Known about the structure:
This protein is an all-beta fold.
Amino acid sequence: MPKPELEFFRPDSIPWEPVAASPTVGVGGAGVRQKILSRDPETGDLTRLLRFDSGVETTETIAHDFWEEVWILEGELLDLGKRQTFTAGMYACRPPGMPHGPYRVPTACTTLEIRYRK
């Protein structure tokens, strides 16, 4: 079944859940939480909010086998590999295999992330 049909709604009632660390799927671990807005259980395609607490630091460079689009809604991420800081309002479109991270989060950060396969 593809992602569900959803008309505008407030996702406040969707709980924040912890994200386990995994370099093939993305960042996770202590201080990283997600709110899944929609998901296709067959393909793994999803749209989510991802929240990093201030002080989170990841240790792995990440590369995955799906497309990923990310918009930083608030806060900032320091990409330690690229030695660049990305801030609220910035957007990324990453094809499968594109390396990114590891990250340091000096200021709590929330992103909107869309993942899909071709």
